[in-house]
Automatic annotation (TrEMBL):
<comment type="similarity">
    <text>Belongs to the UPF0637 family.</text>
</comment>
<dbReference type="InterPro" id="IPR053707">
    <property type="entry name" value="UPF0637_domain_sf"/>
</dbReference>
<dbReference type="InterPro" id="IPR009403">
    <property type="entry name" value="UPF0637"/>
</dbReference>
<dbReference type="Pfam" id="PF06335">
    <property type="entry name" value="DUF1054"/>
</dbReference>
<protein>
    <recommendedName>
        <fullName>UPF0637 protein SAMN05443507_10785</fullName>
    </recommendedName>
</protein>
Amino acid sequence: MNLEDFPVFQADDFSVFDVPDLDGRMQAIKSVIRPKLEKIGAQFAQQLSYDLHRPVYAHVAKHARRTVNPPKDTWVAFSENPRGYKQHPHFQLGIWPTHVFVMFGVLYESPNKSAIVQRLENHAETIIKHIPADYFWMEDHTKPIYLSARDVHVEKFKDMAEKCKNRRQGDLLIGKKWSAEQILEMQAHQALASFQEVFQRLLSIYQLTSDIGNG
């Protein structure tokens, strides 16, 4: 990782989401946040490719389908597919008005969602033991509603997995978040180390699923 080129999120990045209209917020995202996500994406795509011994590609959110409502968050995603990430198990690093997150998971758009979630469910005990208490689980990537990992035991996780498989728009994501206040206090080396630690911890969970739909 190149620390000199690693961008730090600042107050202006979070303020982008105060812009009320679609065009204004999109322009602010493009000019303020997206250049940082592109740099972060390039660095972590390189690191993940090294860790996995195969290419990983960064996909910065374009929000191209938005016609009325401005984006509530924005992100860069990482997958082994050069064309996209939504249909594959993937990582995301993103920013909301209140926090920054790093997570791994599968979205409802994936045609292999049931197989991926079943694979995770098969390893429920290992996964739950592997996840620190200050991580979160998420069942809908469009809403900042998080379940603390300390409250998700094996049976709860299996219930979440079954719910995800049976709901057409069910997601299943695991990660860690930092408040805007925490992020603003970090220097580049601290942010890089914090994000990198989460990617490394989630990597073994990703590897449980990476053979599904990536061939």
